[in-house]
Amino acid sequence: MTPAFHSTVVVGAGAVGSFFGAMLALAGHPATLIGRAPHVQAIRSRGLQLHRAGQVQTVRLAATTELAAVQGADLVLFCVKSTDTDAVARAIAPLLDANALVLSLQNGVDNAATLARHIPQSVVPAVVYVATAMPEPGVVQHFGRGDLVIGPLDAAAAKDAAHRQALQVVVDLFATAGVPVTISSNVMGELWTKLMVNCAYNAISGLAQLPYGHLAALPAIREVQHAVVREVVAVAQAEGQQLPLATALAAMERIATAMPEQLSSTAQDMARGRPTEIDHLNGYVARRGAELGIATPVNQTLCALVKLVEAGRAAGTSGTA
Fold this sequence. Notes:
Layout: E1 8-11, H1 15-26, E2 31-34, H2 37-46, E3 48-52, E4 55-59, E5 62-64, E6 75-78, H3 85-92, E7 101-104, H4 111-118, E8 122-136, E9 139-150, H5 155-159, H6 161-176, E10 181-183, H7 187-208, H8 212-216, H9 219-238, H10 245-258, H11 265-272, H12 282-292, H13 297-314
Parallel strand pairs: 1-2, 1-6, 2-5, 3-9, 6-7, 7-8, 9-10
Antiparallel strand pairs: 3-4, 8-9
Helix pairs in contact: 3-4, 7-9, 7-10, 7-11, 7-13, 9-10, 9-12, 12-13
């Protein structure tokens, strides 16, 4: 089947968005990255440098800082930080083509719903499994995996035959670029599983500035991660999600094996002094737990510690003893 999407735009092209945009471009599909000025300037001058499988590939693709570039795109990969979802969704709403399909390639479980509140086009939640980093503008390092799970946002979308067909076209498009995409009938459950993994790794990796393999090697840290998982599972189950504890713990353990050298996105943000998404990870679990009457002390503590580091940086302190 020939992919029906003719133009893809990545909104918020950091490491993840740039990786998927580059994979599409390498397969000959038009792709445009919307990102920060230094990243855009580097791509324009020398192409995107993709470090993958021991090689460096120069990927030529369009790059801009202007959100207006979403005009004319029939596939939008929405990759902005969760803290910016609301503002960017509002900004692109009047610019999107009527038939555009918007994939939310973001952490957390609430971004797709936020997008859908502001744009009338079809919004598709996507669970992202890829280990990437952007050590400098114009450079993306790929450490492992690179697959997506997508699915209908709600029951109405699930019953829409045209929407189901559009999801299959996404699968076909990415398949030509060597990116496996799976359609799930329970993508929100998949997102909760990803949230659980992020809560177990992101903040700890960020506070220690260590990759996942190092965390898993310390029994005391694994005990903390198990406590995080138990809390997330309790909140997820209260939300009506089928997330068995044994399954969740096994999924959490597998990530350290699959991505031992990966620094979490939270760690990368903290290293650069950028705001993190902690409010949409451990912070989200803590908030929902409080609303549902479920204690989440470990998630609450990890969120508070990350915020302490962020506040110290904002105040101009070094954060070191």
